[in-house]
Amino acid sequence: LVTYHAYTPKGNPVTISGTGMGVASTHICIEELANLDAKVILRLGSCGGIDPTVVTGFPLGV
């Protein structure tokens, strides 16, 4: 998996990492980040669903 390390304009460290596909891979990555004392974990990605009231391209926040 690809990981990038950078800093915010205020000098705070930021790590950006791909988790792969699926909940199992994401879970492993989140556990590892928590073990490394991550303060904030933000997941961005795509998903599928069967709810006919949610139109294609609708942004979801959970």
TrEMBL record:
InterPro entries: Nucleoside_phosphorylase_d, Nucleoside_phosphorylase_sf. Gene3D superfamilies: Nucleoside phosphorylase domain (3.40.50.1580). One of its GO terms (molecular function) is catalytic activity. Residues 4-55 form the Nucleoside phosphorylase domain. One of its GO terms (cellular component) is cytosol. One of its GO terms (biological process) is nucleoside metabolic process. This is Nucleoside phosphorylase domain-containing protein. It comes from marine sediment metagenome. The lineage of its organism: unclassified sequences, metagenomes, ecological metagenomes.
